[in-house]
Amino acid sequence: MKIAYVMSRFPKLTETFVLYEILEQEQRGTSVEIYPLIRVRQPVMHPEVQRLNGRAHFAKTVSTCVLKANFHFMKRMPRTYFRAVAEALRGTWGSARFFFGALVFVPKAVYFARDIQQRGIDHIHAHFATHPALAALVIHRLTGIPFSFTGHGSDLHIDQRMLDRKVEAADFVVTVSRYNREFIVHAAGEQSREKIEVVHCGVDTEYFAPADRPKTGDRLEIVCVASFEEVKGHKYLVEACRLLASRGVEFRCRLIGDGPLREQVVKQIAATGIADRFELLGPRTRPEVREILWSSHVFVLPSVPTSRGQREGIPVALMEAMSCGLPVVSSDLSGIPELVERNVSGVLVPPGDAQSLCNAIERIASNSDLRERLGSAARTKIEAEFDLKRNTAVLSELIERSVMAGKPMAATTAAD
Fold first, then answer.
1. pLDDT tens digits, 224-267
2. CATH architecture assignment, domain 2-202+388-404
3. Distance in angstroms (rounded) separating the CA atoms of residues 17 and 317
4. Rounded distance between C-alpha atoms, residue 199 and residue 177, angstroms
5. Which of 308, 40, 287, 311 has the alpha carbon at shortest distance from 176?
6. 155-177 residues labelled b (16+ CB within 10 A) or e (exposed)
């Protein structure tokens, strides 16, 4: 089976769920080609990226190959080509972000369609319901090759531009939580329900296993792995730490990641008067993250809804920490309660409530038995429902079912 993955950016350090899902697909014997809409050059990359870079088909917005592909479909299938382009532009009109994105990405999608067709791809799977799903829709319109897409979090919650059309045209739709499934049904209509499958992102439970050495030291080691964005709620963690210090709790808080709000967080930390208790470690590779998780006592992710409507899906960073047997504290928000069972596999607090966050961390700090119980239950939860191999197998079976339902018609064998 040959499948194509379409995503926004590659390689992106924070989107490990795409990278390792592809690698697991290959472990299952599936041939995977990668089609990113944007090429990302980052100073820090996961070690496995090099294995996939050679199969990532990057394209510039204006290039000979893109122009040739568009001319090919324009000449061979003019009505199909112009209908597909018009559908994308009409559907995104009214949103500057989506419309101008479509102007940039639709020509690339046409190039992808030509390349995918020539490679004999059986199925297209897009990650994110925004421009990647739009690109997959355009490819489907031009080639007849079936497609599916995974909706995660903010790609669904901020703007549902063309979501109903994407769902209608897709063979099936995957989302990472039951919360998201109901959100899509509300946006795309009740008739879409039977097409929507909940398949959790997963983590490698063998790699992210509990540490085989005891944690040392008297101070509480807090860790947060998250991009510095509003939705991650760093400011509430910093405030909770200030409150912890005022109560005499000994701790160190390590923040892993980067992003647009980094300097704002740095200034807030400086204003607390306890900057020596924080470490901003920047972007880190997968092995480095695991090592830091192993030396930590509690993982905290205080996610919040943003003014733009951005919400979490189910954060993979939480899964990785829980897989390592760490107790976690997070927010009672969107799909997170489907991962973190309140007071069973972690502690949930109201989003945006630094006082409750502080209380939860202090409770864990003062009770080693509670840490052990929550961490053990967290590991069990991940093994049962969020294992990478098992969940990728579910996705693979959905794709195989789509492929076996019938090969697509050769849409470009004859002119319109």
1. 999 999 999 999 999 999 999 999 999 999 999 999 999 999 99
2. 3-Layer(aba) Sandwich (3.40)
3. 10
4. 7
5. 311
6. bbbbbbbbbbbbbebbbbbbbbb
> Of the CATH numbers 1.10.10.10, 3.10.290.10, 3.40.50.2000, 3.30.200.100, which one belongs to the domain with range 220-385?
3.40.50.2000
pLDDT at residue 48, rounded to an integer: 74
Q: Which amino acid is at 211?
A: A
**b/e code 276-308 from CB counts within 10 Å (16+ = b):** ebbebeebbebeebbebbbebbbbbbbbbbbee
Q: How far is CA 14 from CA 54, 123, 317, 405, in A?
A: 20, 25, 9, 35
Going from the C-alpha of 163 to that of each of 8, 124, 168, the distances in angstroms are 16, 17, 9
The segment(s) of the chain belonging to CATH 3.40.50.2000 are 2-202+388-404, 220-385
Contact (CB, 8 A) for 283 and 256? yes
Residues in the chain: 416
The verdict on whether omega for the bond into residue 11 sits within 30 degrees of 0, i.e. cis, is yes
Q: How far is CA 9 from CA 1, 100, 132, 181, 277, in A?
A: 24, 17, 9, 24, 34
Output the pTM of the full model: 0.90
Q: Which residue is listed with tokens 């509690």? A: 298
